[in-house]
């Protein structure tokens, strides 16, 4: 299903904000993605170095946090990087911890975070894809009026902000109706697949829509 507004405003915006460090520099850097991914595979991999069921993986990035006595952080995560990874695994939430969109990065997808969430070595976060999507959506699509002055910090991570955007433009851009009875009655059959390591569109959102269709249609 096309869930454009929640995906492009809150999901992409959350990812961009999670890794936004001082002066436009990333907190989680490209060189740490293999370190993180290897640790995830070691903790949750079942076959050929793959995480076959990321839904059951309870990997905690703090398990590879650098000790205070470390003289090098090349093979571990700093405390700030652990916080970033936790946010990416948790998905976009308001101040009460409520999900703004059913989607997050799944364990095992870490190598695909570049260049969506993590920029290439030496590059700024402005070169990643997520902030561009979130900014263009919040400025030019989310509200009836256009405001190029809006930034990532203007994204409303609140229930009221969610309702405002969804009421204004959600019906225009989103296709979330789980009632496929007309399609079924016309003889239609639908096959859905989604890669679990997709860095752009979280597979959790697709699963949520599938579950909604199942609840509606039986």
Please give a structural write-up.
- This protein is mainly α and 218 residues long.
- The protein contains seven helices and no strands.
- Helix 1 crosses helix 4 (129-140).
- The longest helix is centred in the N-terminal third of the chain and has 15 residues, at 4-18.
- The two termini are 18 Å apart.
- Tell me the structural class: mainly alpha
Total of helices: 7
Spans of at least 5 consecutive residues with low confidence? none
SSE arrangement, N to C: HHHHHHH
Oligomer: single chain
> What is the mean pLDDT?
95
Strand proportion = under 5%
Termini gap: 18 Å
The Rg value, from CA coordinates, equals: 19 Å
The coarse overall form would be globular
- The strand count comes to 0
Binned, the helix content reads 25-40%
Largest beta sheet, briefly? none
């Amino acid at each position: 299903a096309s869930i454009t507004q929640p995906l492009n405003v809150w999901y992409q915006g959350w990812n961009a904000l999670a890794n936004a460090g001082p002066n436009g520099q990333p907190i989680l850097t490209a060189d740490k993605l293999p370190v993180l991914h290897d640790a995830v595979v070691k903790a949750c991999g079942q076959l050929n170095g793959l995480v076959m069921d990321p839904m059951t993986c309870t990997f905690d990035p703090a398990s590879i946090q650098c000790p205070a006595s470390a003289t090098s952080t090349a093979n571990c995560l700093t405390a700030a990087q652990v916080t970033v990874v936790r946010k990416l695994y948790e998905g976009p939430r308001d101040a009460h911890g409520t999900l703004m969109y059913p989607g997050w990065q799944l364990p095992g997808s870490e190598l695909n975070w570049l260049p969506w969430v993590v920029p290439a070595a030496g590059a700024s976060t402005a070169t990643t894809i997520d902030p561009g999507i979130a900014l263009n959506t919040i400025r030019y699509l989310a509200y009836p009026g256009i405001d190029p002055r809006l930034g990532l910090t203007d994204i409303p991570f609140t229930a009221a902000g969610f309702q405002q955007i969804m009421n204004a433009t959600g019906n225009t851009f989103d296709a979330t109706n789980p009632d496929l009875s007309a399609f079924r009655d016309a003889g239609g059959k639908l096959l859905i697949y989604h890669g679990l390591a997709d860095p752009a569109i979280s597979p959790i959102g697709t699963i949520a829509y599938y579950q909604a269709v199942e609840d509606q249609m039986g």
